[in-house]
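User: Hey, quick favor. My workstation is busy. Could you predict this chain's structure for me?
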Amino acid sequence: MDAKVWARLGVAAGVLGGISGASAYGAREMLSRQAAVARSRIGDPLGHVAPSADKTYKKRYGDPVELVVLGDSIAAGLGADHPKHTLGGGLARRVAKRTGRAVRLRTAAVVGSESSVLAEQIEGLPATYRPDVAVIVVGGNDVTHRIPTADSIRHLTEAIGALQELGAEVVVGTCPDLGALRPVPQPLRALGSRASRQLAAAQREAALTHGARAVSLAHVVGPFFITNPDEMFSLDRFHPSTHGYKRTAKAMLPSVLAALGYADDLPFGHHAPSAG
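Assistant: No problem, here it is.
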């Protein structure tokens, strides 16, 4: 996610739309100053390339599960200190342990992606590739880049359909709560929180409507990021740390196992499409 776009949050524009004259100008100036503060606090210590985690985990188990991860910097694992600690690496190791099967991980996620890039990520998969389960985590960049929710959801549902056509069960990790980003001052952080939660709710509904599973990241791991930020965030205090990714992979695991047919009961924050 690019911190430089905080000043252009769509929800902020909506709030300011009801203000006129000097008040509106003053509010815009305030948000611009807050965005500058956020940029200076966050910086760019991680670069833009996540650790490469693609390989077969627990190869000796055989009968490999084909797992593909798509989406943005969280899906790619930016901020993890080792490939096995990325979201994909953490899920692959845990799925192998729980199923007794090898897991062949392919990471199509790209740092900085919006939902509109999901189609490109899917098109980049080998023509003969047939994933068993696909995990999508995307949305933060849509919020900060002021992408209309309807457009984000359209791209997400098209990606779900394309992955299902490849034979994959799909698990969507909904947009994290941007209100957990402490380097972003108030009220800009509160505006980001509201916008991200609105998108997450729309993503959940779209996923379930189109036969995918959804994991509400704001519910299953969001509280850890809010109460323990020093441990859960990486150097930039913007992306998850190794510990943050461990928590996220562990939290998403039940829905991934359920998608593969290895679990029935789902904990709070996990949502399955109705049988109908």
